[in-house]
Amino acid sequence: MENSTSTQQLLEIYYNGFAKKEGWEQVISDDFRFIGGDMTKSAPAVGKAAYIEVIKRFSRAFKTMRVKEMIVDGENACVIGNYDFIFPNGASINGDVAEIWKAKNGKLDSLTIFFDTLTFDRNIPK
């Protein structure tokens, strides 16, 4: 991926692949930083491999996803992703996730997400 790839283009590649649950990894930087899933922990998961593992687990919880809104400002972006979740207990819900992105050197470099963690806690067995 060349450095000239815009943040908008990177996100389009990412979300097209993410919705299919394949092909999104190509736009993630090797030292990617991810914060989310547990807002009580401010330390990021660091590295592309660590993020891929997070997404393997998360991908089991959603059936479909679509971008509801995307705002891009240079290397910064905010995306509202809308997900259809199906939990192991059989519960199905639709929910939005706020996703704050930073791009760097032609790759997506970091992501912080915000969502209703209480609903996840109530529907995923411990």
Automatic annotation (TrEMBL):
Alphabetized GO MF terms? isomerase activity
Q: Which UniProt keywords apply?
A: Isomerase
Pfam (any one): SnoaL_2
Which positions fall inside the SnoaL-like domain? 22-108
Q: Could you tell me which InterPro entries the record lists for this protein? A: NTF2-like_dom_sf (IPR032710), SnoaL-like (IPR037401)
**Name under which the protein is recorded:** Ketosteroid isomerase-related protein
Q: Which organism is it from?
A: Chitinophaga ginsengisegetis
